């Protein structure tokens, strides 16, 4: 059984690792030139029921805990005047919640747990054609070709493999801009804390996240379509009238501004089964970025691997079993992600988020 995994992100690598633990080898085709080719993003909180569960199936819980930051669960929500609406502080040293880990560190952890020849770098899949005797003939942008019996699309939002199963494509949701602060002044370190900060206004959010190496990643989320932001001045204009204590996060940015659109698949997306092919992660169920995407991708990988290991003589039945369970699991999570994303960029986001994050019996604290 030759298994090809298109995409070497967290989902694809989790699938390969859990298969390897079951004595089933796979080849991961990754478009990047090597593991250091680009930044993998900021910190990721791993949920016990999904991301941490997948790592347990991969046999990597101890390694994860040695690299994770439980203190990164700290979370503050501010209004544009700089007043604290919500402040969550985790129990020191506890892994009972959703500890943070640097995405690059987590990806390296998975890569290091695989045989060195599992990942074939610099292979971007451009097409897959069914073979007369079953399986798939693969073509890559480099001109290379390969064959497999089972093809798994872990190739993200613009998945090539998805086109083999459905015509459904992601649609626009919002605009997001990023910049980083490498030289973090004490007052900004205190403002952000050890985890995440959201400053919530009308139809826009200014966020900040403490990275494992001490840097701060700043994000700007905006409702509606916006042009590319070339510099900090254009971003600062969007936050005119906000507390200088908060906008200092933009002022302190010492790297380039990157702008991207946020897209999502329609909730409830499904496809009819097709022999020898399936999807995991963003390729299957791209959601707004509210903390579930990577966790669910990793769980997809672990559950697909378990299904294939349990029924190696009938991989199509294993894939059908995985897909039905995944569709049922993802539906409410995708709906929740869409609601939270819309709530964060609404006109009443601050009060809505206070209600969302505060127990009914507690009143939100307002501090200067």
From TrEMBL:
It comes from the Bacteria. The keyword Oxidoreductase applies. Residues 3-328 form the FAD-binding domain. Signal peptide: none annotated. GO terms for molecular function: FAD binding; monooxygenase activity. The keyword Membrane does not apply. Keywords: FAD, Flavoprotein, Monooxygenase, Oxidoreductase. Pfam families: FAD_binding_3 (PF01494). This is 2-polyprenyl-6-methoxyphenol hydroxylase.
